[in-house]
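hey
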């Protein structure tokens, strides 16, 4: 099976959770699956920016990224967060390789909106490098930074980055691992299965906001690009990766309309 696992920023805050997920993902690779990891790191970036007296601003789940904080984005997302994850995957037994979307022109983006600054909207994915590494037993670990025309660099929402890479790779399964059990309805109950139309309705009604809105938009985009199966689940749950790969109905599965 070919799969992509997106690790949310909150999960990356816990040493115990990071270690457990690294072990589970490495086990998949050992079982013959081709795996690519995409990660965020927003919590750590917000703390770093707060130390620079910069108050983080979000709009529809996207971090406003003026040019003056791009250096911080690269230091944290492509730097400390990515390096730490690579080291932990190595310790778990994987031949992990840290990357960004800039490397080898893997992910190219354009500016999403002037109001958001250097937030990128993915325009093109060249999966050649990721496929080469995964096919040869390496574990690509991709930070959510993309390149653009004229040597531009963009901060890309990690969920959208994962969706775009999953579509470009043609994965069988896209996992969004986060710190909640899945998609919740207006009463706070878990929705085990949802289609694209229902997901859009949750966004329009204001039920899904912020990070979950971004995940639902990314999930429906992945389905449109041909990804066979998308699941949003709690990455802190015991042995969650193997259970999801085995088809256990855990979290929320998204299906085409």
């Amino acid at each position: 099976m070919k799969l992509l696992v997106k690790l949310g920023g909150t999960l990356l805050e816990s040493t115990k959770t990071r270690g457990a997920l690294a072990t589970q993902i490495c086990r998949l690779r050992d079982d013959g699956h081709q795996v690519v990891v995409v990660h965020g790191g927003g919590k750590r970036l917000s703390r770093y920016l707060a130390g620079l007296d910069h108050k983080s601003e979000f709009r529809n789940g996207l971090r406003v990224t003026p040019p003056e904080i791009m250096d911080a984005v690269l230091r944290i997302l492509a730097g400390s967060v990515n390096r730490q994850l690579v080291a932990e995957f190595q310790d778990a037994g994987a031949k992990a390789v840290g990357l960004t979307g800039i490397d080898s022109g893997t992910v190219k983006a354009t500016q999403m909106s002037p109001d958001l600054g250097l937030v990128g909207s993915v325009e093109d994915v060249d999966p050649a490098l990721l496929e080469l590494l995964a096919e040869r037993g390496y574990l690509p670990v991709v930070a959510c930074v993309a390149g653009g025309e004229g040597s531009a660099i963009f901060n890309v929402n990690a969920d959208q980055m994962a969706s775009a890479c999953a579509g470009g790779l043609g994965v069988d399964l896209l996992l969004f691992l986060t710190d909640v059990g899945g998609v919740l309805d207006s009463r706070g109950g878990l929705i085990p299965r949802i289609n694209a139309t229902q997901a859009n309705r949750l966004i329009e009604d204001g039920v899904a906001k912020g990070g979950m809105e971004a995940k639902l938009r990314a999930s429906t985009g992945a389905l449109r690009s041909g990804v066979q199966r998308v699941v949003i689940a709690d990455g802190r749950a015991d042995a969650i990766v193997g259970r999801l790969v085995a088809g256990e109905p855990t979290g929320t599965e998204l299906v085409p309309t």
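The longest helix spans residues 70-91. The chain has one domain: 2-255.
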